[in-house]
Amino acid sequence: MLIIQKTFVDVSGDLIAGILLSKIVSLFANKNTTTIKGELAVARLRKSWWDEIRISPKQYDRAIKLLQELGIVRVVNHMQEGKKIKIPHIFLNTEKLEKHVREAIEQIREDTV
Asked: Looking at residue 85, what DSSP letter applies?
């Protein structure tokens, strides 16, 4: 079960990107990661996201682009061990994520005053 973080929707400015970010953070928190050159990453084919959070490859492309533009994630295609295709590996920039979350929370506070 995935818990959608409303703040991640606020951070990204997009519902689908917020859902994707919620899942990415959940995967990192639950240590469902792989290590590439000493960095933790989530490795998933674009089409795999449908099974996990019901977003299409096209929705994934748009959402991941938004998250990359914010500097929250970096995506690098790597060969997975035993696979003959390159698989996107998503690296999470926790410092940028924390910065954007703080800004979103501050904006919410200002809007409610």
From this structure: S
| pLDDT by residue, tens only, the chain of 113 residues | 777 889 999 999 999 999 999 999 999 999 999 998 899 999 999 999 999 999 999 999 999 999 999 999 999 998 766 667 889 999 999 999 999 999 988 888 877 76
Contacts of 109 (CB under 8 A, 6+ apart): none
Q: pTM of the full predicted structure?
A: 0.89
CB atoms within 10 A of CB 85: 8
Phi and psi torsions of 91, nearest 5°: -105, 130
3-state secondary structure of 45: coil
Evaluate whether the domain defined by 6-112 bears CATH number 1.10.10.10. yes
